[in-house]
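Reposting from the mailing list since nobody answered there.

I have sequence plus structure tokens for a pair of proteins and want to know whether others read the tokens the same way I do. The first protein:
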Amino acid sequence: MSQHSALEREFTMCFTSTPRGARLARRLVSHRLDDWGHPYTTPVNETVTLITAELTANAVRHGHVPGRDFHVQLTLTEDVVRIEVTDTRAEKRPPASPQAATNSLSESGRGLLLVAALADDWGVNPRPAAPGKTVWAELHAQAKGHPLTDRVALEPTDLGLLLTTASLLRDDLESQPEDASRGGRRR
């Protein structure tokens, strides 16, 4: 627990900058949310787990520095869940507006569109004590109802495209063989 609130809970871990590390981070975030009262099948758990999947996949794909891990911090207050993913690559920052950087024919770049659509707020901060950056997202954790009820819904085709792309990107990262000559790092 931190000094912010007696009701605040915090979970921080370090993961290898590999697709396996990203999968483990996603699973542990889901388990921790379940332990904290947001069961696996609730909208809060499913939404934060999906956001975590996108942010950790980006940390592995775009923020990887050989020999360096990425960090995940999950914070739960009475009404907000915050996920932070920190990597050590400072020069590769996500665009301020993911729509501006995404081409409809591009095979990548839709993960942050999904994060922007699902999160109540998100952003990027420089890592304070070392090179790198922290990409974070917040979701209002309502006691009842779906966390996205007050938003304008995406068109079904847009959401379907985002979810399909996210799934394909994760599958692509998971299916690449390990390269032993690079210390087990998948390319």
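The second protein, same order (residues first, tokens after):
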Amino acid sequence: MAQMSKEMGHPVSVAALCRADKGRTLPPWETVKAYVRCCGGSVPEAKRLWQRAARAALQGQTVKVPLPRTAPALPFVTEPAELLLAMRDLHLTAGKPTLRELGRRAAIPGTGVSYLPRTTIGGVLNGTRACSKEVLLHFIKACGITRESDVRQWVTAWERAYKREGAASRYTTAC
């Protein structure tokens, strides 16, 4: 996205975009504008929301802005955050099994050793850890995805999200 913003004439660093994406502080308007343009959103609507948040920040208030709660369809996943949303949706669809249950489902038969430790999948699902391809494969299998074509869709989505130039390193170092 940083490269795209540069090509569009509104250069913003990867770190600035990552900070804006986290939503912990109010980013500068120029960062928001570049972000919105890269995503194809409405700049006037974004400016209205940004000004509302800026006014509230000056008054020491917090502003609740509704965020999308659904993941894009797997063929449209291009970012680690979108893959995370898709994984959370799959987890819900699978009946929201506990992390312990997911680990049990991904255990090596007869050993009790799991390919999906609770700390690992917990970190991935809460967004504090990047998802490796192996973890994704064990996770989707534990959630009931076994058909080859479905598994292929998940792997392809993972590759688009993490295999782009520097995507995984941006996720783990810049954010």
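Reply #1 (J.P.):
I read it the same way you do. Confidence is low (pLDDT under 50) at residues 165-175.
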